[in-house]
Amino acid sequence: MNKINRREEAVSPVIATILMVAITVVLAATLYIMVADIGGDQVGEFYGSMSIGDRENNRVRVDIDTMSPSSRDLSDVTVRLYNPDDDEVCVLSGVQSNTQNSYTLRWTRLSDDDETVTTTARLWVEHEDDEHDFSGYEVVMTVSGRSGSISQEL
Q1: Which pLDDT does position 4 carry in this prediction?
Q2: pLDDT tens digits for 111-154?
């Protein structure tokens, strides 16, 4: 019989174990980076929607329909009122009510402690003139420390 003398070489068990561990670590790190990147941009975003509620002669009610995060400290919330020429005419920041340039911005239906804005909150936009027309005005709400805003044309 012919005996074929062939030398079989293989990777040692120690090297094979080290390679398997290295591949597992690389796959786990790749998966972690992919998953962490998916929600990374949304952590600092503020978004939601508002709608017009009651509209009377010199006042308009703006309802907060959705908001993420779903509640914010009143001290973190800023509301700006812009006229049709995009001039800022009134700012409400960290307080329940503010009057400026004949305009009043006022929160109602805040949380039980009156310190938190939630999706049940209502914002009243008022003018001292009984027949003021709010057509073309815009309300913009922002939150400190977060990008994005919620806006509603009146």
Answers
A1: 62
A2: 766 778 888 888 999 999 988 889 999 999 998 888 889 999 98
Residue 98 bridge partners (DSSP): 105
Residue 5 pLDDT: 62
Class of 47-153 per CATH?
Answer: mainly beta
Contact, 130 vs 116, CB < 8 A?
Answer: no
Whether 91 and 106 have beta carbons less than 8 Å apart is answered as no
Residue 13 preceded by cis peptide, ω within 30: no
Report the pLDDT value the prediction gives residue 34, as an integer from 0 to 100: 76
Domain residue ranges in the chain: 8-40, 47-153
Residue-wise burial string across 6-37, b where 16 or more C-beta atoms lie within 10 A, e elsewhere: eeeeeeeeeeeeeeeeeeeeeeeeeeeeeeee
